[in-house]
Each structure stands twice: as C-alpha cells, then as structure tokens.
Write the structure tokens for this entry.
Amino acid sequence: MAKAPAAVKAQPPVPNRERPDEPQLYEASTEELLEFYKQMLMIRRFEEKAGQLYGLGFIGGFCHLYIGQEAVAVGLQSALDGEKDSVITGYRDHGHMLAYGIDPKVIMAELTGRGAGISRGKGGSMHMFSTEKKFYGGHGIVGAQVSLGTGLAFAHKYNEDGGVAVAYFGDGAANQGQVYESFNMAELWKLPIIYVIENNQYAMGTSVNRSSAEDQLYKRGESFRIPGIQVDGMDVLACRGAAEEALAWVRAGKGPIILEMKTYRYRGHSMSDPAKYRSRDEVQAVRDKSDPIDHVKKLLDAQGVKEDALKAIEQEIRKIVNEAADFAEQTPEPDASELYTDVLVETY
Ligand SMILES: Cc1ncc(C[n+]2csc(CCOP(=O)(O)OP(=O)(O)O)c2C)c(N)n1
Ligand SMILES: [Mg+2]
C-alpha cells in the first residue's frame, strides 16, 4: 500500500463524545393512554373527513393527510411545555395542530378557505399557524421549516426564555442543503432544538432507499457532532419516551439532537397522488401489523378499559369532526378586505 505523504500527519482520534441515553418506553397511566388514544383517533377521523371534503370539492389546492403518522405528533407534543416550547413543520400539518388541542372547527374551516379559519382562510391546508400555541406553521417549501425552526431555537436562546424548538421534516427534506447549514449553526451555537425527521418511507413517489445514500437518517447529524436516535414512530409510548430523552438533552444545554421517527403514511403523498410506486399489499401489511391506534387500543384493553368506553370516545370524536365539517362548509368565505391584512409586516 502507498505510504501517506510525509506532510500528512495522522489525526488524533476524536475524543469520545457524550451520547444521549437509550430512550425508554414511556410509562403512561391509563388516563394518559386514553388521552393519547383520543388525540390519535381525532387526527385519523379528522383526516378521513378532510379527504371526503376534498373529494366533494370543498377543499381546493394541495391537501396532505397525516393518516398513519398520528403517534409521532401526539407522542412528541405531549412532552412539550406549552408555555415555552415552539413547533414548526411542513405542509402535512393538520395532525400537529390537532395534537395541540387546537379547535378542529378552525382547522377544517381553514382547509375550506373560510374567514373563520385559523389563517382567515388565506393559508389553506399547508399554511396554518397559531402563535398563541407557539405553532409556527405549516410550510410548503420542502426543508424551509428546518432553517426557520433553527431561527426559532436561536430566538429561545437569545431571549433566554428556556424554550426548545421542535422542527419536523420528512425523509425527502432530509436531503435538502439548507438542513445541513442549519445543523452546523445549531451545533456551533448549541441551539435548543430537536430535529424530528418523520421518515414515512416516501418523498412524494420516491422511496427513502432509492433517494438516500445514507438511509439511516438518525445518523445525518454525525458530521456536525449532533447525536441522533432512531425511534419506532408507530408506537406513541416510544415517541413520548424519545421526546423525554431529547428534551432532557437539549434543556441541559447540550445543543441540538435528531430524532428519526420510523413511520408510514397510508394515503397518497397528497390527494392527487395515484400511488403507483407501492403496492396495496405493502400498505395493508403496515395497517395490519403496526397501526399506531390499534396498538394503543390493545394496551388499553390490557389495562382493563372496556370496549364500550372506547366506542363512546369514537362516537364523541365523530360528532366533533362532523360538526367541524358542517361548520367548514357553511361559514362564509373571507371578506375581500382580508386581501390586504397580514400581508406585509410594517413594524418589527
Ligand atoms: C424546495 C421544494 N422542492 C420540491 C417541492 C415539491 N415537493 C413537495 S413535497 C415533496 C416531497 C417531500 O417528502 P418528505 O420530505 O419525505 O415529506 P412527506 O411528504 O413524506 O411528509 C416534494 C419534492 C417543494 N414543495 N419544495
Ligand atoms: Mg416522506
């Protein structure tokens, strides 16, 4: 083997770096499990209804459903401090808003472009915000939320408010350049941020293995010394457990951390996806074996919660979702004067 030129010195080994502990499954009480169940079922039924309203022509533009991924937003957001922490995500955002307990009516009315919607009907499915809940959208540009989320983390640090930013993005977005610029700055400045990669196996129609040279996405921070953890994103208790570990790391001032949530979307990328890139059998197999809601149902059953109690929850949720849909169909479109509001920020 050729010798290395004399000028090239062997580098000293990188000192051992501290790693986060292996996350544990969260030990939920029956009440907490019931709450997870309710929230996940709310997302599922809401999204099914949104799909129907889209088919009926009530929803225009793009609409990306979160069905299959419910455990991620519910598990993670249940661990956050609603007074301090902030969240940002991409266009597949209805579930994250519902996990925050935001009224399904104002979310559905946003989907139908009505004045009572949370962005006054001007944002639609992809652009919803609640500054009250520190939820900063809802972004259509793949990967943009990663840099914006890093900015939110910078603001938490600068203002010394003790908050942590959570920036969700997809497996496809994980290949975007700005993600790595953000990683570099976040680690350099030890920003309080959890980067959550929702690896649902596909970016539009391209599978993660086809498009990613390193498909173990939790490793994507290694060159920046950002630790990563791979998590079962179909198990709400694993999601919550990982959130606890990540929050402890970030709140201790150790800088950013990556959580790769292994999940799956059951529906097409958006409502206009013919889904020719995967078989029905593949989707059905995940539904049968790993459905996040069925999983919680089994846990509740093991804790002695009766089928009747779960049926009552289901009925209650269907009622809320139907009311949200009726509201979203009937409430008026925004007034023309809304064209000029919230367009330009005049003072900073
Ligand atoms: C900068 C940019 N490039 C391309 C697109 C078109 N586009 C929208 S979603 C998407 C795939 C993203 O997949 P992923 O990050 O895995 O998120 P998922 O949809 O699976 O939640 C693409 C390429 C876009 N919106 N923005
Ligand atoms: Mg994806």
Summary: The chain has a mean pLDDT of 95. The radius of gyration is 21 Å. Residues 30-326 form a domain with the Rossmann fold fold (CATH 3.40.50.970). The CA atoms of residues 2 and 246 lie 45 Å apart.
